Amino acid sequence: MELDFKVAADYLTTLVNHPKTPDEVQDKENIFYKWDSSHPYSSDVYAASLEKDPTMDFVILNFADIQCHDGEAFSEIGEFAEETMGKLIAQTKPDLITFTGDNAFDPFAYLRLIRFIDAYNIPWAAVMGNADHKGIVSEFWAAYQMAQAKNSLFDYGPENMGYGNYIINIKENGKTIHTVFMMDTHYKDETQGERRDHLWDNQIEWYKWTVNGIAAQAGYVVPSTAIMHIPVPEYQDAWYSIYDKDTKTLAPEYKDLPFNKVHEAFCTPKFNNGFFALCKELGSTKTIVCGHDHTNCFAIPYEGITLTYAMKTGCGCYWEQETNGGTTLAVSSDGQAKVSFHYIDPAKSKVKKFALDYYNINLYKRKED
Questions:
Q1: What is the DSSP letter of 157?
Q2: Rounded-to-integer distance, Cα 146 and Cα 219, Å
Q3: Strands 337-343 vs 325-331: parallel, antiparallel or unpaired
Q4: What do you get for the CA distance between the two ends of the chain, in Å?
Q5: What global pTM score does this model have?
Q6: What is the phi-psi region of residue 303: left when phi exceeds 0, alpha when psi lies from -120 to 50, beta otherwise?
Q7: For the purposes of burial, counting CB atoms within 10 Å of the CB of 262, is it exposed (0-12), middle (13-18) or buried (19 or more)?
Q8: What is the 3-state secondary structure (H, E, C) of 233-263?
Q9: Contact indicator for 235, 290 with CB cutoff of 8 Å
């Protein structure tokens, strides 16, 4: 795959003309919205909305941890990731495409990914991962590129919460039936020795305010999904509720599922911020979707919430060939979402020499926290 000179020209333009920090934006007061819990919630002000066809499910297709470097994005590695995404879009016919972070390592790769997905003319939304600041002009620069894309729903969200905390309401006949929360889990927590970060206290308060505000408008608690990069600590609890460490066996109803595995340590925050407990208390969020741990993949109902490790998309950074693909949430008219995994077999790739050169190779060995 040759260098995309349009991407190269776009990148050079961004270095000169595009802001690298919020302070460089001409109307910077309009980037974030000012928020506190005393403000009344309004979907017209604070949320994007998409309309569901009453005759079929609303399909959300998620891509996880594509994570190409610049050179890789223009090689068989990037071509294979694009082939995988293209096949998934053709198969699932999504109404919304989401990204659970670690979208790309470097600026050319970021721009190529945005141009690739935007060309499908399907609404899409992304959150930032812990690697979305690496090798890039700045994390804000990456957020700005997504916010400017034609079909992107990316929104910076409230100030002082990171980049990209926003709300997407799915409606049927004008009525909100499901809400998607896009939430930034940041990339390090200096208070915890720079361990993996987490949702901040003000994000959790914002989530609570939004759930209650949407319920007040709708007249009932609207089902929702939370999409983020770094998993909450309860992912580990969920796994050990179905996996016996002594016998190394799964519960009978899980043992034959093809995409149900934990092949690396759980990389969660080192303390519990209470978000999962709040989700249980409020009764809205029934599904949490994360990425981050590339060789983990499952959807486990745990204490009323389906905790989902999204299937990794492509071979960027590190991967396992038996779980290459994407994840869908099919939202029905009652607002409930069903999780499914969609495998794209690398052995059937048409990318030149892919199977010989890259099949089943982890490009980088992950360092343990």
A1: -
A2: 34
A3: antiparallel
A4: 35
A5: 0.92
A6: left
A7: middle
A8: CHHHHHHHCCEECCCCEECCCCCCCCCCEEC
A9: yes
Using the structure block, give the residue that is written with the tokens 């000179």: 5
Nearest to 126 by CA among 172, 67, 51: 67
| CA gap 187, 72 in Å, rounded | 23
pLDDT tens-place values along the chain, 369 residues long? 455 677 777 777 777 678 888 888 877 778 898 888 898 898 888 999 999 999 999 999 999 999 998 888 888 889 999 999 999 999 999 999 999 999 999 888 999 999 999 999 999 999 999 888 777 888 899 999 999 999 999 999 999 999 999 999 999 999 999 999 999 999 865 445 445 578 999 999 999 999 999 999 999 999 999 999 999 999 999 999 999 999 999 999 998 888 999 999 999 988 899 999 999 999 999 999 999 999 999 999 999 999 999 999 999 999 998 999 999 999 999 999 999 999 999 888 888 655 445 544 544 444 443
Residue corresponding to tokens 């889990």:
185
Element (H, E) at 201: helix 201-218
